[in-house]
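Hey, I'm writing a tutorial for new members on how sequence and structure tokens pair up, and I'd like a real worked example in the thread rather than a made-up one. If someone can provide the structure for the chain below, I'll link this post from the tutorial.
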Amino acid sequence: MSEKPLGNTDRTQPSRMRDRAVTDRATMYEVLDSNILCHLGLIFDGQPFVLPYGYARDGDRILLHGSSGARFMRALADGAPVCVTVTELTGMVVARSTFNSSMNYRSVVVLGCATEVTGDEKAHLLEVISDGFLPGRSAEVRASTKKEIAATTLLSLSLEEASLKVRAHGVEDEDADLNTGVWAGVVPLKLVAGEPQPDGEEAASLPVPESVKRYVANPKG
């Protein structure tokens, strides 16, 4: 894995809120491993697009997958520059003024060009993605067929050029706004999983698999 600190390039050094920048890669890995949804930004035919995608981390890279027929996947496989963001909202910061109200969050930004994964490792890394979404699930279901694997584009994006910002503290009000009879504080936010809903009579008659039980107990891994 890379030894370089985060934000070490001109494009990833923060220009504002520098006190929120975190340079520790281990912290970035923890943020990435705690989430499964990213937003992928690229310019296609002169038009900016931002699209939601599932992802999984594999060492010092993230893995993305999609239909081999999707034009965005093809563009990325051909080397189009991309910006990937992962944002975890952890709290609403309710200040004594709207100006000083904020949010607590952890946000990763990754820049670069993805490369397409082919060959023998593709099937294995697709299972890595599946287990990144629902740990242990790939061992509970059948293996993907050659046709399914061929219909899927798998991309690898290095975490070499990345940055991380974190806000994890309380209200920062002006002194003049204190002791004015206005409530202020933080409302914590977290991801929770609901009760599993079986698909059809057969699934309803079967026990909930261990991968699903673990996910319901802790959806952030």
